Automatic annotation (TrEMBL):
Record-given protein name: GDSL-type esterase/lipase family protein
Domain SGNH hydrolase-type esterase, first and last residues per copy: 6-191
Organism annotation: Cohnella soli
InterPro entries: Ester_Hydrolysis_Enzymes (IPR051532), SGNH_hydro (IPR013830), SGNH_hydro_sf (IPR036514)
Listed Pfam families: Lipase_GDSL_2 (PF13472)
């Protein structure tokens, strides 16, 4: 049996996918198909949570820590709300730079906590989910989201991979976003699950 733990913001919650539950159950089905084992999953999504909140939960919530400790596969969605908050403010370069630095620091902290929880388990995998651009009409938004995705890449190693969804959403926002023009709809979440599936399943299979 494969234990899959999903933690993060509203993307992990599946907000916007009215009947399908977001990418988590879709990816769980992919895992089951690829590894030919039954999959059980825990979905720990916190709508509106910035990366510092997610890190605090990973550090301080016993139930979350035990779920992560026992997971074979972990997905993380974090950092999008950091950029949203920067955009809501003065939307200047300094605000975006600070948001990028904070999210990088906090995601590094999340991965460090996961590694500590996994000291006795060598075969597990972590997948960070990159961001799409929900505001293609805002000229600077794409550049900052690309920078965010690029900084996720620095965390990649034998265990950690990044699922890139930016290109798949680009130019298809009308089809892939929910009525709020921000969160994915069911089709958008299916794209995210496909991106996760494409990262492979090493070292599990």
């Amino acid at each position: 049996m494969i234990h899959y733990a999903a933690i993060g913001d509203s993307l992990t919650s599946g907000f916007g996918d009215l009947f399908g539950g977001g990418f988590v159950p879709k990816y769980a089905n992919d895992i089951q198909h690829r590894l030919q084992q039954q999959v059980v999953y825990d979905k720990m999504g916190m709508s509106g949570a910035r990366s510092d909140k997610i890190l605090a939960v990973i550090r301080g919530n016993y139930g979350v820590r035990e779920t992560l400790r026992n997971a074979d596969i972990i997905t993380v969605t974090a950092g999008g709300n950091d950029l949203v908050d920067a955009a809501k403010g003065q939307s200047n370069s300094d605000a975006y730079r600070q948001a990028l630095a904070k999210s990088r620091h906090n995601i590094a902290g999340m991965l460090e906590e996961i590694r500590k929880l996994k000291t006795s388990q060598s075969t597990y995998m972590v997948r960070l989910v990159g961001l799409y651009n929900p505001w293609p009409s805002v000229p600077e938004s794409g550049a900052w989201i690309r920078r965010f995705n690029a900084q996720l890449e620095i965390f990649q190693d034998a265990t950690v991979k990044v699922a890139n969804v930016f290109d798949a959403f680009s130019g298809r926002e009308r089809d892939l976003l929910f009525f709020d023009h921000f969160h994915p709809n069911g089709r958008g979440y299916a794209i995210m699950a496909e991106a996760l599936d494409r990262t492979g399943y090493k070292p599990l299979g």
